[in-house]
Design brief:
- Three copies of one chain form a homotrimer.
- Chain A is an alpha+beta fold and 139 residues long.
- The first copy, chain A, has a single domain, classed as YjbQ-like (Jelly Rolls, Sandwich).
- In chain A, the strands form two sheets. Chain A has a five-stranded antiparallel beta sheet with strand order 1-8-3-5-6, covered by helices on one side. In chain A, strands 2-7-4 form a three-stranded antiparallel beta sheet, with helices on both faces.
- The longest helix of chain A is centred in the middle third of the chain and has 14 residues.
- The relative contact order of chain A is 0.39.
- At the A-C interface, strand 1, strand 3, helix 3, helix 4 and strand 8 of A face strand 4, helix 2 and strand 5 of C.
Chain lengths: 139, 139, 139
């Protein structure tokens, strides 16, 4: 059994940009040379989150609309009133989606479905340099 | 320390069907003969998800209504416009709920609450044969 | 590699109270003397959940309003009709947020962002004595 931790670096535009990070996570598993275990992907950020989806333009557009409707950027937020940084909705969207995703792998490959990709969603309101954490644990 | 991976097979009706898979996950832990560690349950699918709930008919009905109201099947989705498969809402519900659940166990038993069950929710719009992944890691 | 499991005990007021448990989780990692691995935090409860957020009064107020609006306590729930315990909305909020959070640590420290705290949200409608589970696994 071993634990290995690697970063994934991304330049994002924010504004609920959706990025497919499946290949980058698989690359970490490849580099670890582990056969079976879990990959934990983690966002060290309170304005972005992770999930899986069928990564095609329709689903991506629908997901962005979902967040725009459930948690609009245009209304008032107590966070904005206090800090005047305009990303109150980003914090809520991130808290709702969650910062962490754990994916099993066997035979060196993640157990994803055929039409299932791991996505990183950056809810912040300006371009960001992001560093995600991928930690693999297994044997 | 060891890692063991087993499938759980389910025939579902889709349409936001809610299934209690607690016993099936516990069975995997029993079979592993591990005493302490984590069970990671994973849906290799982009139209289904996992969480816990008090599995009784009232909560199950309320949960199904919640998804029907937050993400109705009856409106337009870009996914449907592109692929004409009618399950745009299924993808969003699955992405929001998430495909992964990690539950600790000690003394060979999951640390669930008395009224807490692990549920699999199939949001697809037709019956499906599903194979979930349970990966246990521990000692 | 080793697995260690500890409780975190909390007295809460319920009513979507938001508590910062970051220091309590870090204390478990310190006590374990492990350098690298994952901390899995788990709520053995179907009326509370976990996520991360920037823990400042504005974001906390916004998060509480989000749950009050998406899943109001004031409407009818089938759970309440059947059990007359008035916490139908608590169950849905908990199922949506999720009971489990996995956070990597390296060099004995969690890989959290600067403005990111781990929060426990108690959605129940009365004060509760809660015991969360923190399981650390690593080396």
């Amino acid at each position: 059994m071993s634990v290995q931790t690697y970063p994934i670096r991304l330049s994002t535009n924010g504004q609920t940009e959706v990025r497919d990070i499946t290949a980058a996570v698989q690359e970490v598993i490849d580099r670890s040379q582990l056969a079976a275990g879990t990959a934990t992907v983690f966002c060290p950020s309170s304005t972005s989150g992770l999930t899986t989806i069928e990564y095609e333009p329709g689903c991506v557009a629908d997901l962005r609309r979902m967040f725009a409707e459930l948690l609009p950027s245009t209304r008032e937020y107590a966070h904005n009133a206090a800090w005047d940084d305009g990303n109150g909705h980003s914090h809520l969207r991130a808290a709702l989606l969650g910062p962490s995703l754990t994916v099993p792998f066997t035979g060196g490959r993640m157990t994803l479905g055929t039409w299932q990709q791991i996505i990183y969603v950056d809810f912040d309101i300006r371009p960001r340099q992001r560093e995600l954490i991928v930690q693999v644990m297994g044997e």
